[in-house]
Design brief:
Blueprint (H helix, E strand, L loop, with lengths): L1 H15 L7 H21 L6 E2 L2 E2 H25 L5 H37 L1 H32 L9 E3 L3 H22 L4 H26 L4 E3 L1 H6 L5 H16 L1 H37 L6
Antiparallel strand pairs: 1-2, 3-4
Length: 302
């Protein structure tokens, strides 16, 4: 009885605790992440034909998500450098991430396909209705997997910087990057590449747009998988590295300067596929070889 009374008092004391202090600068940058995600949704809501100056509304929405990625990378780095990491900061970061890297990319996919589905309805109403439901299911799956990914990260994450060498599952910013890189390429680069060649533009336009829901579904599955993805900054850039790392970095910077949108597609989609391809190689090709070698190795009986 006394033990139960002590537990009840402890629970009441925990409930009465209030958050008194927070770190201002990292929290502001985290809020910027969420605001950029909200701005991306607002710009995407203007539709396919809306333009703001030289850029389309969809392109600006994509760049807002890129800015949210930069803020997401910066706030955690600042918190660890100032030794001010906290549970509040981690929870706030996840809440903003679900807006910027969960809801915003899924909403962009819905708006990108909205115009195409309307065109399909003229040709085949049945197929258009089926495809519309598939796109909605894909977007809902992506948002759900992003939420699960972020919740799992909060539970399994360690605040020690030395532990941040890899991620279990595709990080949500990288998953969003794979989607918005294709959208930015479609909005900014494709019209210039296919200028004056309408059949080629129509072919590439349909390929990219109709591939978006499948890309979203693929990265959604990778987010909740147990495939290990490297922490690029800590693994490849931090500390002393071989000269080849520096050469590859210079090459990547050159590609980004030459064509930003194309470089984003290579970086984000390549990152998402690379770890999966490596996992598939070891799972399918290496495992039978290792099993065969194990069976062929003579054993000594002691």
């Amino acid at each position: 009885m006394k033990t139960q009374v002590a537990k009840d008092r402890l629970l009441r004391r925990v409930r009465r605790q209030r958050l008194k202090y927070i770190t201002i600068l990292p929290s502001l940058i985290t809020i910027l992440n969420g605001v950029c995600g909200f701005a991306a949704i607002a710009f995407a809501g203007r539709g396919m034909d809306a333009r703001i100056g030289h850029f389309s509304a969809f392109a600006i929405a994509g760049y807002m998500i890129l800015l949210a990625m930069f803020a997401d990378m910066l706030d955690g780095r600042l918190a660890r450098m100032s030794q001010s990491t906290s549970s509040f900061g981690g929870q706030l970061d996840s809440l903003c991430d679900i807006i910027s890297f969960g809801v915003a990319p899924a909403f962009l996919v819905l708006k990108m396909l909205e115009h195409k589905v309307a065109g399909l309805a003229i040709v085949s109403p049945f197929f258009a209705n089926f495809f519309r439901r598939f796109v909605w299911l894909t977007a809902a799956t992506y948002v759900s997997c992003a939420a699960i990914r972020l919740a799992r990260f909060n539970v399994e994450n360690e605040e020690d910087e030395s532990a941040h060498m890899s991620f279990i599952g595709l990080p949500s910013p990288a998953a969003a990057g794979a989607i918005i890189s294709l959208i930015l390429f479609h909005q900014d680069t494709l019209p210039e590449l296919a200028a004056g060649n309408s059949p080629a533009y129509a072919a590439f336009d349909n390929t990219i747009v109709f591939a978006l829901p499948f890309v979203a579904l693929g990265v959604a599955v990778l987010m909740v998988s147990r495939i290990r993805y490297p922490h690029v900054l800590n693994v490849y850039l931090k500390g002393k590295k071989p000269l080849t790392h520096f050469v590859w970095l210079l090459l990547a910077i050159g590609v980004i300067i030459w064509n930003l949108q194309g470089a984003l597609v290579l970086i984000f989609c390549g990152f998402a596929v690379s770890a999966f391809a490596k996992w598939l190689y070891y799972k399918i090709l290496r495992s039978p070889v290792a099993l065969r070698q194990d069976l062929e190795t003579p054993r000594t009986v002691e």
